[in-house]
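Person: Show me a sequence?

Helper:
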Amino acid sequence: MNIFVTKLSSATTSDDLAMLFKEYGMVSSAKVIMDKETGNSKCFGFVEMENEVEAMNAINALNDIDFQGRKIVVKKAHVKEDNEHGGYRGGHRPFQHRGGERHFTPRRERSEEG
């Protein structure tokens, strides 16, 4: 089971996260997410535990505890479906919803809009 952990201290490492969860069972992986540009922690991460019962025990035990000076939030991570966002992963979506209708804005008009 994939577990989402947020509100971590900026000093928390992936090893710290793994050690915290190992108390509740076998940890397959633990990773604190880092900002690519700054190299700083984004203060959230993921822990993977194979055994679902151990994972649920960890979630129930660790949610809302004080860890390294921060009250953390621990919950089951939900995997995003491929088409959850319409399959489009860009900064500006070509189709925009306006009043229940879909309107297409051609590229050159979008770039002129700003």
